[in-house]
Structure prediction request, 295 residues.
Amino acid sequence: MSSLTITIPNDQNPSSWFSFINDSLKKVNLKFDILIVDFNSVTFLDTDDIVILACLIDSFYNSGKEIKFINGQDSLLEHLDEIKFKKYWNPNFNRDKFTVTNNTTTLCLWHISKDMIVDYTTYATKYFKNIFKDKDLIGLSLSLTEVFNNIFDHSCSNINGYVITEYFPDTNILSFSVCDFGIGIAETMNKYYLSKREPKVTDSEAIKNSLITGVSSYSTPRNRGFGLGNVLDYTEELGGQLTIYSNNGLLLKVSKEEYYLENTNFNFLGTLIKAEINTLELSKKDEEDNLVFDL
Prediction:
C-alpha cells in the first residue's frame, strides 16, 4: 500500500503552520492509501494547533485515506493519548459524540454537528463546573454556541469543523479554539458588501466588521450576525483575547487594547478562532444557575 507523510511544524509560528496546512491540502486528492502524520519532535500543541490539524486530517480521511501517526515527544504523545486524539480516525470511532477524556482540564475534541450544539455547550459548562465550582460559566456556553452557529451559517465547509477547550492552571487561562475549512469570514463579508453594492475591504477589516453586533452577512435566523460580537465581548470582559485567522486576514484583540489587524500572505481558505479568558475574572454564579446546570 502506498503512503504519504506530512510533518508537523516544530514551532508555533503561524506562517509555518499555514504553509504546512496549505501545502498539505494540495495533496488530498493524490493517489495513495495511507496518510502518515509525523509529529516530528513537537512537545506541545495549543488548542488552535489541535483543531486546525484535526480539520486537515479530516480532509484526507474523507477522501478515503487511512490515518497513521509517528514520532512526537513524550509530553505531547501523553497529552494526545489522554484526549484520545489518535483514535478519532479509526473506522469505528464516532467523532460526532462526546469522547470522555483522561484529562481533567481538557474537554474532548469534537467534530461539530448541528444536532449536538446545545448538548455540547451544556456538557462543557458541567465539565468545567468541576474546576470552577462557584463561577458563572453561562458566558462560556453562549460563546461556544454562537461560534458553532457561525460555522453553520457562513462557512460552506466540506467538513463541519472541530472545537476543543482546555484549561491551563499555571496561567489561569481557559482557551477554546474552533476551526473550519470553509470559504472564510472575509470572503463571506465581502460577498455581502458586493450584494449591497458596497466596496470590498481588506480581509482583516472584514474580520473586524464581522464582530460588530448586529452585522448580518447572509446569516440564517440562528445568529443574525450577533454571535462573534458576543464572543468578543466575553473575552474583553474577562481580561482575555480573541484571535481570528481567515483568508488573508488576521485579527487580534487583547482586552483593553486596540485591535491588531494584519493582512497576511497565508491565503487560508477557512476560519480559525481562538478565544482565551482569564478565569480569575470569572464572576460568581447566582444560586438560580445551580438549577440550570445541576443536571
About this structure: The chain has one domain: 3-293. The first strand starts at residue 3 and ends at 7.
